Structure to design on (227 residues):
């Protein structure tokens, strides 16, 4: 069964600190992995998209890693800011259908305290 | 900033009412999607479209229906709303291709009383 599991479910950190969010998946055949940021009451916004051949991709203070062998990904946030408080969603796409199905994790709820 | 819009943003209606959630995008994307999301839960695909006059049901069974008469417009309709339909509905679009970004609208928070 194709699944995406994220950990931790929630995380609280102090402003300025770094943190790392984890994503494990069983989606096969794999096409790409995406990290989204979703503010409360808003739609998700894409942070990174990585294909099989990419193992690191950065977007400002966000750095995503991908290990396609172990089917794991992480999102590292550097020097956190209050505006980083949001849900971070890991999404994996398969290439077994023309739809390019997206499998969504439940997200990690990050809270940054001043 | 994605050019994809949803209206209304919030809607509170009584049971049995017919409602239409609007979604439009100005990016010329062929593919459009509707997702349902409950608090703290993952997004579930309920409808998608590959282009004009193309609509398909997603993974999550839904009593809603959709139409795609114009490329930029993908409305979702509930003929008779029930409290079980209370949820957040997110519209998204993407251009053709495998590893392309999917752009989401701001969502409609629906409450059926």
């Amino acid at each position: 069964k194709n699944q995406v599991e994220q950990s931790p479910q929630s995380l609280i950190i102090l402003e300025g600190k770094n943190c790392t969010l984890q994503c494990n998946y069983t989606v096969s055949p794999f096409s790409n992995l995406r990290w989204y940021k979703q503010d409360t009451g808003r739609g998700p916004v894409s942070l990174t998209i990585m294909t099989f051949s990419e193992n690191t991709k950065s977007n400002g203070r966000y750095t995503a890693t991908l290990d396609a062998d172990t089917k794991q990904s992480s999102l590292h946030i550097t020097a956190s800011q209050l505006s980083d408080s949001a849900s971070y969603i890991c999404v994996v796409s398969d290439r077994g259908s023309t739809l390019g199905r997206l499998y969504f994790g439940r997200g990690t709820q990050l809270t940054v305290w001043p | 900033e994605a050019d994809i819009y949803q209206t209304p943003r919030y809607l509170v209606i009584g049971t049995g009412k017919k409602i239409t959630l609007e979604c439009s995008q100005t990016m010329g994307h062929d593919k459009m999607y509707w997702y349902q999301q409950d608090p703290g839960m993952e997004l579930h695909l309920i409808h998608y479209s590959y282009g004009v006059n193309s609509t398909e049901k997603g993974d999550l069974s839904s009593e809603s229906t959709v139409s795609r008469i114009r490329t930029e417009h993908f409305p979702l309709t509930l003929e008779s709303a029930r409290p079980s339909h209370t949820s957040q509905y997110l519209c998204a679009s993407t251009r053709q291709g495998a590893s392309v970004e999917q752009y989401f609208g701001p969502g409609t928070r629906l409450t059926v009383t």
Summary: The two ends of chain B are 34 Å apart (CA to CA). The mean pLDDT of chain B is 92. Residues 46 and 61 of chain B are 7 Å apart (CA to CA).
